[in-house]
Amino acid sequence: MQEPLSFRELMYIDAKVLSYAEDIHNKHYRSFFTDEKAKNASNMMFIAYPLMIETEKYYNGELLSTYAVFKAMRELGENYRVTAYYFENLIIRIISFWDYLYQFLNMYFDLKLYDFRAKKRIIEISGYTPEFVSEGRGQRVEFKPKSNEEQKKIRKDLNKKLNTINKSNILKYITGIYEVKGNLKDLLQIIVNNNVGVFQEVRNEIIHQRPAGANFTVNFNEMLLNYSVLINNSGWIEFERYDADIERCMDLIGKSIQKVHEIVHLNEYPNRIQHAGIEYFVKEVTCISCNKVFIAPSLLLGDKDEFAKVVICPLCGEVGCKVNKTFKTTEVDYGTYLGNYLSAFEE
Ligand SMILES: [Zn+2]
Fold it and tell me: Which of 43, 101, 159, 278 is the most buried (most CB within 10 A)?
């Protein structure tokens, strides 16, 4: 019987592995697309930017360092149990990357999907009615449970109504709502082929059944339909079976981050399907009365700027402007420019 690994054995990375891993890390470290154009990019940038930078940091940080140590250990033929420890760490991080990316896409494309914890919480809270109860000079809120029938109905309705964030819903919702082309099309293709299912299976086995480093494990025999103890002194995971998938996953993760950067930096926010193919423009104009510059949606100026004489300046309220420049924009930003222009006239 082998002794369990000591803390030192499990955590210690010797100098040879460390320097080998550092080379691998440096080779795969990526600077993702950044462009000065980002400065005048979309309003959506404010939502997207910090989250996008987080996925980049995760790739170059936690994910890449784990990958580098695992790969170095594989290539230098380190102890099985120690390699297994890094294998678990790596595949869990690979799976998590895609979950983080789906969260980002849900937010950026406003898909209104929920992660399963949020969904569970919403359903739980909806089973109660808040009631105000007098207490001293003030009031406090008390949550009264609804009747069993009501709760059952709410659970059923919400379960159907609130859809969860996962690969298939992300693909379904984006293609169902938006016109998919260019970099977005490439990104969705990468997600379709991300092959993360391979790791999900082994991850579930590790989480629920046996650690990757185990030599003795409970095994369910599908022919005999019974359990037995499986002995495998060299370990139950054959790492070489996963080497190619790991390489592929790291490559696709890098590519997907790059695509997200291009979509955000180049402001390729897609049109909704019902407006597919339409191009949106706004114009920078100068008011002929107050001489100030403002942005007017092209709708107000007409195809040939024929309405420039009757456009109202949102700054001084006088009529008439001169067109300086035309910018191409996105449907969502066009809506924001229009909203901003109109809200200047609200009381
Ligand atoms: Zn003016």
Answer: 101
Please give the distance, rounded to the nearest whole angstrom, from the Cα atom of residue 326 to the centre of ligand 1. 19
Q: What is the pLDDT along the chain (347 residues), one digit of tens a residue?
A: 567 778 877 777 888 999 999 999 999 999 887 655 555 556 667 777 888 889 999 999 999 999 999 999 999 988 888 899 999 999 999 999 999 999 999 999 999 999 988 888 888 888 888 888 888 888 888 888 888 898 899 889 998 999 999 999 999 999 999 999 999 999 999 999 998 998 998 898 888 877 887 777 777 777 878 887 777 767 778 899 999 999 999 999 999 999 998 888 888 899 999 999 999 999 999 999 999 999 998 888 888 888 889 899 999 989 999 999 998 899 999 998 999 898 888 86
How far, in Å, CA of 106 to CA of 128, rounded? 28
Residues 6+ apart with CB under 8 A from 277: 179, 271
CA of 294 to the centre of ligand 1 (A): 9
Q: Are 103 and 115 in contact (CB under 8 A)?
A: yes
Q: Ligand 1 centre and the CA of 341: distance in Å?
A: 13
Between the CA of 289 and the centroid of ligand 1 the distance, in Å, is 5
